[in-house]
C-alpha cells in the first residue's frame, strides 16, 4: 500500500521514545526510515519483554524501520552516515545536546552539502545557562515542568501514566517535519527544527501557569475531579464501580438532579445555583451526590445518565479498555516475527501503509552498507 511520504528517506539517530515516535509516524505514512543504533541497540529494546519477548515500547515505535548498527566515533561508520545523509530528506536525532554537532553532524554542515535536508533535534531542554547537563527522561520533565504538581490526588503528586512528554515531543516533531516538507516543495530548502520535551510540557501547562501569574493560583490536585467545574468527577455506585460524570451548564445540572438522580431539592438549593457556587460549596455537593449515587448500581446509574443526556464515562482499567467497543486494533510484528495486537494509529480515514516488523539490531546493516558504499 502506498503512502503520502513514499520516496522520502528519513535517517534516524534515535533511541527511547520521543524521536522514535516521530519517525514511526513518518514510516506509517510511507517514508523509508533507517534507524541508526549502537552495537547494543536502542536501549528501549530492553525496557521489558511484554511483546512476546520484545519490548512493548520498541515494537510499538519501530514498525517497518530498517536498522543498521554504527559507531559514529569510527571514521568509516561516520563517513557512511554522512553519505546516507547526503541523500536523505529528513534527519532526526535525539542525542544529548551538542553531541551531533561535535560529531560533525550539525545542521549547518549537513545542509551545506544537502540543502533540501530537514534536520530535527529532540532533547529535554535544549542547551543554555541553567539547563546544560540536565538529564531529560520523561518523568523528570513531568516534574520539572510543574505537570507533576497538578497531577494526582490532594495528598500525593502523581505521574501521568504514560510517557506524555516524550510522546508530545514526538508528535510536535512529526508535525514540524510535515510543515518542512511542504515548505521545501516551494523553496527547495530544508529546515532546522529543535523540539524539547520541556517546551512541549510548558506549552501544555499554559492554563495553570497563567492562573499562577495572573489569577488566584494554580489549580490544586483534585484526583478524579475537575478543579474548576462541579460536578465533574468520579462517583462510586453501590457495586463499587466508578462512573465519571460531567456537567457543563445549568440545563445539564437540572437534568442530572431532577431526572437522573431524583434530587429536585439540589436543583433548587441556592448553594448549588451556577457552577461558581457549586465549586465554592463542593464538599456539600459531593456529599449529597455521593450518598445518592452510592445507592444505585453502575448499570442502572449509567442508563439513567444516558436517558437524561448527561455526559458520563466508566473509569476503566487497562483490562477493561482491551474490550472497549471503541478500541480499534492493528497487528504489530516483533523483531522475531511474532505478532501482537496493539491499538490502531490515532487517525481515522487515513490508513497509511502497512509497514513490516520492528527490526532486529543491524538487520539491514549489510544491505545498507552496500547501498551507500563510497
Automatic annotation (TrEMBL):
- What are the entry keywords? Transferase
- What SUPFAM superfamilies does the record point to? CoA-transferase family III (CaiB/BaiF) (SSF89796)
| GO molecular function term, any single one | CoA-transferase activity
Keyword Transferase listed: yes
Q: Which InterPro entries match?
A: CoA-transferase_III_domain, CoA-Trfase_fam_III, CoA-Trfase_III_dom3_sf, CoA-Trfase_III_dom_1_sf
What Pfam families does the database record attribute to this sequence?
Answer: CoA_transf_3
Q: Which PANTHER family match?
A: SUCCINATE--HYDROXYMETHYLGLUTARATE COA-TRANSFERASE (PTHR48207)
Its name, as the record gives it, is CoA transferase
